Amino acid sequence: MVLESISRIIKVQLPAYLKRLPLPETIGGFARLTVSEWLRLLPLLGILALLGYLTIRPFLPKKKKQRDSLINLKIQKENPKVVNEIDIEDLNSANVCYCRCWRSKTVS
Q1: Three-state DSSP class for 100?
Q2: Is 37 exposed, middle or buried (0-12, 13-18, 19+ CB in 10 A)?
Q3: Which of 35, 37, 55, 75 has CB 3.0 to 4.6 Å from 22, enough for a Cys bridge?
Q4: Whole-angstrom Cα distance, residue 13 to residue 6?
Q5: Phi, psi of 64 (to 5 degrees)
Q6: Beta carbons of 102 and 75 less than 8 angstroms apart
Q7: CB 24 within 8 A of CB 30
Q8: What values do phi and psi take at 88, rounded to 5?
Q9: Are the C-beta atoms of residues 18 and 9 closer than 8 Å to each other?
Q10: Gyration radius from the chain CA atoms
């Protein structure tokens, strides 16, 4: 019963629907379509747009998950900006390098 219904849709109803569509023979013919003719074309255009999107979707750049783009995963997460202040008098050398390694949680 189910296969008969699917067969009827594909063999009878779909071709009848496609025959009734107001497809112009030239590109300029689309400009002369009426609103009701555009409405009759709308389901077909929607399906074609969906198929086009599904076809190019694997080739679109993938969005990174926010977790992957974060550098600071653990240190002072409650603060929107992590800032450490050091008094300049506490530094003994003129050449000082200050670096925080977010992953190992060390400050050097």
Answers
A1: strand
A2: middle
A3: 37
A4: 10
A5: -80, 145
A6: yes
A7: yes
A8: -65, -30
A9: no
A10: 32
- Give the three-state DSSP class for 106: strand
- Per the structure block, which two tokens stand in for 9? 């849709």
Averages of pLDDT over each 10 residues, the chain, 108 residues: 91 91 90 93 94 94 67 73 73 67 59
Question: Which of these is catalytic: 63, 64, 81, 105?
Answer: 81
β-pair type (100-101, 106-107):
antiparallel
DSSP 3-state of 107: strand
Q: What is the pLDDT of residue 67?
A: 55
CA angle 12, 16, 21 (to 5 degrees): 155
